[in-house]
Amino acid sequence: MSWKETYQAWVDEPRLVADLKQELTTMTDEEKEDAFYGPLSFGTAGMRGLMGPGTNRMNIYTVRQATAGLAALMESLGDETKQRGVAIGYDSRHHSAEFAHDCARVLGAHQIPVFIYDNVRPTPELSFAVRYNHAYAGIMITASHNPKEYNGYKIYGEDGGQLPPKESDQMTTYIRQIDDIFDIELADEQAMLNNGLETLMGEDVDHAYLEEAKAVTINNELAKEYGRDMKFVFSPLCGTGRMLGERALRQAGFVNFVIEPTEAQPNGDFPGLKNPNPEFAEAFTRSIALGKQVDADVLIATDPDADRLGCAVRQPNGEYQLLTGNQIASLMLAYILEAHKQAGTLPENAAAVKSIVSTNFAAKIAESYGVKMINVLTGFKWIADQIHQYETKHNHTFMFGFEESYGYLVKPFVRDKDAIQSLTLLAEVAAYYRSRQMTLYDGVQELFKKYGYFKEKTIANVYAGVDGPAKIKALMKKFREESPKEFAGHKVMALEDLAKGTKTLADGTIEKLDIPESNVLRYVLDDETWIAVRPSGTEPKLKYYIGTSAATEEEASQKLADFEAALAEF
Description:
Number of strands: 23
Helix content: 40-55%
Distance between the termini: 39 Å
Oligomer: single chain
Low-confidence stretches: none
Strand content: 15-25%
Structural class: alpha/beta
Radius of gyration: 24 Å
């Protein structure tokens, strides 16, 4: 059917709930086309989109359809898989609780046990709950750091990592086989509770998580001696991070922190936060004002589902400087490795893991400690996969994993990025530098002087609407067919095309890459600068990444600007 026919079918649908039916009457033609031109994309990370009526929107019907697809997948794998059940969590966004409980009702209709949180919880605690309950899968209702108009559906596998590509593709097939999304059977949730098909999770899982989180702290004396008078501001950005984050901090010995009051409580409107994303300075506006008032050394913010973390550090002039995700990760990794080295507990087979679009700064740090750095595809499921391999093969000991997009993992009892763990560790790192009369910013500068000045930038161009996917596809085609031979006067020494699994050297030699296929191009230049291009897996964006380094900060900044200009010109 055309989008107009699909739209009319929704208008005429007697089972459509009243609020969505009312929204249909207020939509412009452009909004109608975007909402009904096709189904909401479902990938390995699940789905994410604007909330509202339509097949290309997040609503109770598309959520039920996705969950029915999961149920069909589990049924195809047999009764043993079905009986392991599904863990479900949700964040503070509008309709998140409603969507989560509809997921439970769909699964209940298929006699699949459900473990669902009794209130909002961080995404990493959902990953933990899958493992804690030995469930086959997990569902997290969240749109992470997107604006308030969005929601999403993250799907997790039995290891607590995001569902592997094979199972995700199978689930997508089952989803697309559902013809009538208004006719999906729902169980009665009270009956599910009464007969034991549904289990509410709460303090029991919180306590188990916090017990595991004790291992994140490496040096308890730092918190006791230097952490007690170290002032910092913590903001959960109106999301899920406060309860667990505050308890984890106090458990680690940090008590002298202030929680930003406006952003302390879950609120799906995210007041004053157009983008509740700790990557951006605007997310720290209120924290900065509070930080100046209480004379805080550090400001730390977690995104609404508490899987990402950002921070700002007070400078001598009283202003606050934001650190990048790459800088935060490099600080954490350097501290972890040095602390274990000093304690004599650094394993000989230690390994860290990062995405291919994350900084080489961390790789240099790892190398200096004799620690192997593994590069994986973007998406924390690939870091989780490495952890699983280490546990199976016993060839490496996992020390740390991260992505440049402000996601980090310290201990593998969670298999996704975890801002609660990161919050605790970063407080310890700040206490370490305080013990040396330094700040986190000073720590970054100290590492730069030792390893070189590294600069990175991520550029995300949005291509929304019906034509968005075609535009993104055309740009990727342009890069492949008109592949640049140089950027800003620096020769391309190697082109890695992960869709083909090949690495083409400057002399034409082609090597095979030992990495899963993905629609990513990565250029390595003659000065070790790298440039990568990839479509986002969850949003209508084409992302460009640049990573460079130099002997001085000024030189590195100029090189970054030159490469950005050359990329834009191409």
